[in-house]
Amino acid sequence: MRDFSQDHHWLSINTATVRRQQGEEVGLARIIDQCAERGVRAISPWRDQVAAAGLDKVAAQLRAHGMGLSGYCRGGFYPAPDAAGLKAALEDNRRAIDEAKTLDAPCLVLVVGSLPGALAGKAAYKDIGRARSEVHDGIAASLEYAREVGMPLAIEPLHPMQAAERACINTLEQALDICDELDPGKSGMLGVALDVYHVWWDPKLQQQIERAGRERLLAYHVCDWLTPTRDLLNDRGMMGDGVIELRKIRGWVEAAGYAGYSEVEIFSTQDWWLRSGDETLDTCIERHRSVV
Ligand code: ZN
To answer: Does the reported pTM lie above 0.85?
Structure first.
């Protein structure tokens, strides 16, 4: 297992972690500068942040800093109540793939979606089986385009508490079943983004990480699970402040062949988003060394 205690060479910052600083929304250009000042070599930005900052400007700024991406957030949200909605989702995913390409991302992360409309408070239908089949077909279609342009897709299984609104793929096993079905040759174009927050509780986690292997493990996200968790989405903890055995899981991931970044991804309306970005980033670096 790699030694992270001496430096933060393999730390990446998911830019949602510092998208709010002292309660205020902060632009991506500023976040990139804050990461560069600290020698952070990679980030994972969100599409809305990139759109607000300007895609080409972001690409130029990253080049100027010699900074890379550990992933691009995010595509997915495939299910829709009608054919027009399904088509629009596929077109949007094509644009996400193109943006990821412009930013030279190693993969586009997919939060696949579930019951359409549920995120906004009213599901257009309740059949999660239908949502899963629309997700399957959506990923298959995106994969075709992703192969053409050479942009790997990383399915992120989400904790089952988000099965209605955000993702009907909720375990690593389920994600790998889709990978094996759509990409049996393990081409490297379809895999998973493994986020400890979503999968730490899974009794099959170690076994499924072994199954995934190097070809399927495209990204690795860290934070911590707080007790109690006060908000289903935005109460993620800083590494070391919760109950996730981070070293143990990284050991499994690395034993399976993963040698990429540990990407810190923390959504925290009640704590870290109220602090200064400098404090949050310095703490990420310190915890990356001491507990990740
Ligand atoms: Zn994640």
So the answer is: yes
